[in-house]
Design a protein that fits this description.
Elements: E1 6-12, H1 19-32, E2 37-43, H2 50-58, E3 64-68, H3 75-88, E4 93-96, H4 108-113, E5 120-124, E6 131-133, H5 137-154, E7 166-169, H6 170-175, H7 187-198, E8 203-207, E9 209-211, H8 222-238
Parallel strand pairs: 1-2, 1-4, 2-3, 5-8, 6-9
Antiparallel strand pairs: 4-7, 5-7
Helix pairs in contact: 5-8, 7-8
Length: about 250
């Protein structure tokens, strides 16, 4: 049993088809696993009413919170805002995950438990027991190549650097200078992990199965892929020079 409050931060934009099911699924899993879990929906002004649907649940459940933002700025700014909110509310562990069920809520207990002996647990598609479901060949090649590229350039002993299913201990997010995290898109995932490693935090990979969404529209784009690709060498130059204190 994980001690202390766990906050699951879920950024949304036009996820009306998923948000209610996701909130209930997370709370159900946390209840069965005896995890003191709260859900924070960070909605970037979804025109489809996602924020209002989440707010209706939050009105009657103290374990559900909604942070309304006025504009769609990318997952990086949304997560930074969500992390600060969760820290202010006393979270001991903070999970980040997608709202489209590509990250299975049933995997939450194992992911959170990964931080019992580490500071950051990554939900990994590319370790034994992990994988993807309902992906085409091109998507698999792009994802795997991106992870290998980041791993080689940043010299990290980790296999899945682009995934967005993670659990942080509080101290990691208190130590990383969130205002200095530059990435707005999925490069945010690479940057957060790299900064954690450079600061000497212990990182483990927990196998997960990533499943392509059934409802709604993917937010992936060529621009997001390009941002992540160009971010990697800049991270090596900028963050890689920083001193690193083993913990």
């Amino acid at each position: 049993m994980v001690r202390g409050p766990v906050w699951i931060v879920v950024p949304t934009y036009n996820e009306a088809e998923n948000v209610e099911r996701m909130i209930h699924a997370i709370l159900d899993v946390c209840g069965r696993a005896h995890i003191d879990g709260s859900v924070l929906i960070v909605d970037d002004g979804s025109p489809d009413g996602t924020g209002a649907l989440a707010e209706a649940i939050a009105t009657n459940n103290s374990h559900v919170h909604v942070l309304h933002r006025t504009a769609k700025e990318g997952i990086g700014p949304a997560y930074r805002a969500g992390f600060r909110y969760a820290l202010d509310q006393g979270a001991e562990r903070i999970v980040e995950m997608d709202c489209d069920f590509s990250h299975n809520p049933e995997a939450l207990p194992a992911l959170i438990a990964g931080t019992e002996n580490a500071d950051l647990a990554l939900g990994s598609r590319y370790v034994t027991g992990g994988g993807t479901r309902n992906w085409g060949r091109a998507r698999k090649i792009i994802s795997r190549s991106g992870c290998i590229y980041a791993k080689v350039i940043l010299r990290l002993p980790l296999n899945d650097l682009t995934g967005g299913f993670k659990c942080f201990r509080r101290v990691v997010l208190e130590t990383i200078p969130l205002d200095a995290v530059a990435a707005a898109g999925y490069g945010f995932q690479i940057e957060m992990t790299y900064r954690a490693v450079r600061l000497g935090f212990r990182v483990v990979e927990v196998p997960i199965i990533f499943t392509e969404r059934t409802y709604g529209v993917s937010k992936m784009s060529r621009g997001i892929v390009w941002e992540a690709a160009t971010l990697v060498p800049r991270l090596r130059r900028r963050v890689g020079r920083q001193s690193h204190t083993p913990r």
